[in-house]
Amino acid sequence: MFERIKTALVLVVVVLSCMFATPSHYPMLILMVIVATLAGDEWYKLMPKTDGTDVSAVASKVYAAIILITSVVTLYFRDLALLLWCGAIFVAVFSIYCIKNYPQYDAWYNKGLTIVGTVLITATVTAIFSVWLISAWWLMYLFLLVWTADSGAYFVGRKLGKRPMVPHVSPKKTIEGLCGGLLTSLIIIVVVQSIYLDHLNLRQHSAFLLLSLLTVLASVLGDLIESMLKRRAGVKDSGTLLPGHGGILDRIDSLLTAAPVFAAGIYLLKMIGVEL
Fold it and tell me: Which domain holds residue 79?
């Protein structure tokens, strides 16, 4: 437990320093590139084995390099990011079918997952960076939505959980836990709307509320996508880089779909005249 707490504190300090310590975009940019590269390496190691052999370490590094290059290009040419966000949202929607029918249906577990991983990881880091460019506080809001939903689901599910949500993918997640996560997130949403968005009208408040709830639901899907992938690959954690926490993917799994949904949602809100 001490090791887990120590790692979490280090992560919090690093992330918050990149977010708030300087107006320069380079620390955040470098952090996103590092995260994308490490996550890409872990994602590739979860891919199907070829001829019964383990995934080549060289191949995983090559794939990580591809993720790095794709992320850098997209971070600098942000007009491409919207396409990636839409791709990540499509993956999230399709994953509902895969999760619901796992393990009877696992045709998704093939080499095509390399493309899926590229889309999800690159979309995530570009979405996080784009939200940070708007405001570090809106990025903090995104993190709070995801963290409170996860924490609420954990504690409510632990105390009151009786009905498994997707037992073949994540046996400990329950319907009650999901409701608890939504409720705790809703508290954050209402507080933020009341204090910081009092200039919005009812229609705009409704649009923001809808975006926030969709982001929370998307975070649940991101978590389940990685859980299903790890279960199919036969591993407990995506990696061992973070003591007590597993790998980078284990820390950003909820953001794989939540961040693109939130970033795309803010883009759409701006298009209809909602200024946050």
Answer: 2-271
**Interatomic CA distance for residues 29 and 269, integer angstroms:** 25
* Helix pair angle (113-134, 57-76), 10° resolution: 40
Pair 116, 48: CB distance under 8 Å = no
Residue 276 lies in a domain: no
User: Which helix (H) or strand (E) covers residue 136, if one does?
Assistant: helix 136-160
pLDDT tens string for the chain (276 positions)?
Answer: 567 677 778 888 999 999 998 889 999 999 999 999 999 999 998 988 755 455 566 788 888 888 988 888 888 777 789 999 999 999 999 999 999 999 999 899 998 999 999 999 999 999 999 999 999 999 999 999 999 999 999 899 888 888 999 999 998 899 999 999 999 999 999 999 999 998 888 999 999 999 999 999 999 999 999 999 999 999 988 887 777 668 899 999 999 999 999 999 999 998 888 877
Q: Which residues of 125-150 are buried (b: 16+ CB within 10 A; e: fewer)?
A: bbbbbbbbeeebebbbbbbebbebbb
Is 211 contained in some domain? Answer: yes
Q: How many helices (H) and strands (E) does the chain have?
A: 10, 2
The answer to whether residue 234 is domain-embedded is: yes
Domain count along the chain: 1
Residue-by-residue DSSP string for 163-186: SEEETTTEEEEEHHHHHHHHHHHH
Residue 147 included in any domain: yes
